[in-house]
Write a structure and sequence with these properties.
This protein is mainly α. The protein contains 8 helices and 2 strands, in the order E-E-H-H-H-H-H-H-H-H. Helices cover about 55% and strands about 10% of the residues.
Length: about 180
């Protein structure tokens, strides 16, 4: 059998996602004691400038271009929480709470999977930079769920995140109490 393959004779093709770095959790020493922080995949850390450009596009009213850029970023880096959050925010601006719920929910789900895989991971304080996109996604998810009338689901999200950072700096718990 030869090394030639059906895709142009270029040898074995690398499969997308194979060996892909995923969102993880790491223990950090903070002035308040040990805490946990989400560690974002290398692909998302390398695209920090892209997110800043997207934010500038949105501020300039170029949401369609920003949307396309975010979709491309996610095609290259599916665990890019900030890109999911930005897509959710764009959907909210367009009054599409169902679509926003999908984007925020995906970011929330990715982070919860990483937290569950790490075991006991509290506290997970918002003030640590790696945790901010998760809490922003949770806030957007709760808001979206309330907008589409899924109050019980919003309360479940709140119950899940409440012990992670009891200070609730984004006021997520208040959103579900409306």
């Amino acid at each position: 059998m030869s090394n030639q393959s059906s895709h142009g004779g270029q040898g074995p093709r690398r499969r997308r996602g194979l060996g892909r770095e995923k969102l993880a959790v790491a223990r950090r020493d903070t002035p308040g004691g040990p805490a946990w922080e989400l560690v974002h995949p290398r692909c998302s850390r390398k695209r920090r400038e892209d997110i800043e450009e997207v934010e500038a596009m949105v501020e300039a009213g170029e949401t369609e271009i920003a949307h396309d850029e975010l979709v491309w970023l996610l095609s290259e880096c599916p665990d890019f929480l900030e890109a999911h959050v930005q897509l959710g925010l764009i959907a909210l601006e367009e009054d599409d709470a169902k679509l926003a719920r999908g984007h925020f929910g995906r970011a929330y789900e990715l982070a919860i999977r990483a937290l569950d895989a790490a075991g006991a991971t509290q506290p997970l304080p918002y003030h640590l930079d790696g945790n901010k996109p998760f809490f922003q996604a949770a806030k957007g998810l709760v808001h979206s769920l309330m907008e589409i009338g899924r109050k019980q689901a919003a309360k479940e999200v709140c119950q899940r995140i409440a012990p992670l950072d009891p200070s609730d700096p984004l006021g997520i718990q208040r959103i579900a109490q409306r």
